[in-house]
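We store sequence, tokenised fold; for instance:
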Amino acid sequence: MKQNIKPAQGKLAVLLPGMGAVATTFIAGVMRIRKGLSEPVGSLTQLGTARLGKRTEDRVPKISELVDLAGLDNLVFGGWDIFSDDCYTAARTAGVLDRDDLEPIKDELAAIRPMPAVFDQEWVKRLTPKHVKSAPTKWDLAQQLIEDIHRFIADNGCDRAVAVWCGSTEVLAEVADVHETATRFEAGLKANDERISPAMIYAYAHIKAGVPYANGAPNVACDLPAIIELAVKHRVPIAGKDFKTGQTLMKTILGPGLKARLLGLNGWYSTNILGNRDGEVLDDPGSFKSKESTKLSVLDTLLQPDKYPQLYGNYEHKVRIDYYPPRGDSKEGWDNIDIFGWLGYPMQIKINFLCRDSILAAPVVLDLVLFMDLSRRAGFYGIQEWLSFYFKCPQVAEGLYPEHDLFIQLIKLKNTLRHIAGEELVTHLGLDYYYDN
């Protein structure tokens, strides 16, 4: 039965905490696509398809035809940043897109200016803010964000909103008593509890404002018990965390192949160099520890060493990130993978991925914007596990382990879309092609 979802009518406010390289690359890309100047390469919502019924039926609509998604012309962009540069200036500073690609949309980009950000240098030590809010307490800062959200929606004539964190990686936070319940969290906001970070305040403010919220960084935010409690109470979709783009994307592609063929793993060494703002932030050990935690979590869950101890019970996994300014946004990742096969004989795989971090992240942001909005209109709320496809460290219900296999994640995502559209789920069993039932 087709789900009763609200139509994607009217303007959709797209709110982005952190309007640096990723956000401006995303915004500029959408603007170019709207003008017919570029193709939405990498976006499942724009180019992806979903098979319906049996293979013999040849029904393979685009995802944008299967479910009612917001149109790109109806997206209105806004957000917050610790620098006051308009989006054109910020995009030029980020250096991701060529000037020739920015010039046709210069005026539209320049018209977008960030609101002052909530920021605390104790949580992101390598950046010096120039455009921030001030208030007596963190509770007051949260109220300012809520006011910003409501004002932006009203001033731009938007019907609804969705938010995706595109800001920097904070120092790794330990979950404490202040994070356990909504009541304690709100008391902590009023008491200026030092264990509440800006990322947590943004997540709180958007949920209280009724805005779906996705966390694109490894920051502890949407995964706090208090935030999950509030998301369920206010019936707001949340998802996270940490965009799955470069090296981890490769792990979730290659790792399932090794496991499927039952090839053993002795070690996986990963190192990266990058020179953008993200690289500068991660040069701080505290912020790197946050990123390391999401990058390291993938293999253990994916390979299930407790189920396959002779293959994956004793491998070495190392992750390194080095800030190297000359590289800019063009990140380079090296992986050395020591595997073993029949009779224990060793083999190696080498990967050298010269990627562009923001180019890989931009279509992820677009898809999350449109799918999170779809979730809200479909009546989904709380953790959106069906969007695990996009995250290094997917959120799941308490007591479940996250599914990291990219291909299982994609099946789950498309089956959720089929469910929303009232179509049969695809099991890929296919026995009816060969046997009478």
